[in-house]
Every structure is written in C-alpha cells, then in structure tokens.
Amino acid sequence: MSSLSPSQNSEKSGPGTVNKSGQIDRKPSRLSLGPSLDTDGLTNWAADLLAQARAGAEVAFGFMFSQEYLNQNTTNEQFVTTSYAAFFDREPDAPGKATWLAALAGGAGRQNVLGGFTDSLEFANLCDVYGILPNLA
C-alpha cells in the first residue's frame, strides 16, 4: 500500500501522512479543522498527493482556508503556530513567529503568510521527505 510516510522508512509521521498500517495521521486535520474530520476527504487528499495530482501547497491552502478552519475564528498567533506544526512539522522558532505575526499585524493577508510557508525551502524539503510535490510547476 502506498503511503505518505518518509522515504527513509522511519516511524516519523508528518503532515497528511498515512502510517504503515494504513491509518491516517489526523494531526494536521485536528490542528486545522478541529473535531470535524472528514476521513474520506482526507484520504482523497492523501491519494491526490501521492499521485502528484495535487501539490502540498494546494492541500495546505485547502485546509487552512476551508470553511471548517475559518469557522474556528483563530487568532493570528494560532494561525502561525498551526502553520509551523502542519507545514514545517515543528514548533515555531521565536524570531520566525515574531516575523510572521508582525507581517499579519502590518496588514499582510493570511494567504500571503501561508504562501511564505509553502514557498519556503523548509516546506519543499519536508515534501521531498514524503515524496510529494511542494508546488505544481
């Protein structure tokens, strides 16, 4: 069975992964969508990522600007923290978090900030680990 597990075949589970037993790692959906997880939808997103029919950035925007996420009325701090966890697979570093929060406070839109995450080398490297495209060319 195909999965979005790292190519190094470790036990690490990251954004949008299907683990070795075929179970969906729900971490990104809990971070982004709260309790309203649509398992079939998540499975379809994962299949599209594996088939390279969708890129990681497209899926990221799909999650972060879904009605389920928007209904949570998250603060800018929650948005940035979620973006680090879901798309960099780590906690935010203080300087980076401060930079993104300052950009949002200064009028940058969340789409622009998320674009900064998905256009980054760190996101591209994480996508490479899971064998998915970061962006469609």
What is the strand and helix layout of this fold?
Blueprint (H helix, E strand, L loop, with lengths): L26 H7 L5 H12 L5 H9 L2 H4 L5 H13 L5 H12 L4 H9 L2 H10 L7
Describe the fold and architecture.
There is one protein chain. With 137 residues, the protein is mostly helical. The protein is globular. It is built from eight helices and no strands. It has one domain: Phycobilisome linker domain (serine acetyltransferase, domain 1, Orthogonal Bundle). Helix 5 crosses helix 6. Helices cover 55% and strands 0% of the residues. The N terminus is likely disordered. The longest helix has 13 residues. It starts with 26 loop residues before the first helix and ends in a 7-residue tail after the last helix.
Brief synopsis:
This protein is 55% helix and 0% strand. By secondary structure, it is mainly α.
Q: Which structural category do the helix and sheet elements fall into?
A: mainly alpha
- The fraction of residues assigned to DSSP E strands is under 5%
Largest sheet: none
Task: Please report the total strand number as a whole number.
Answer: 0
List keywords for this structure.
137 residues; mainly alpha; serine acetyltransferase, domain 1; 8 helices; 55% helix; globular
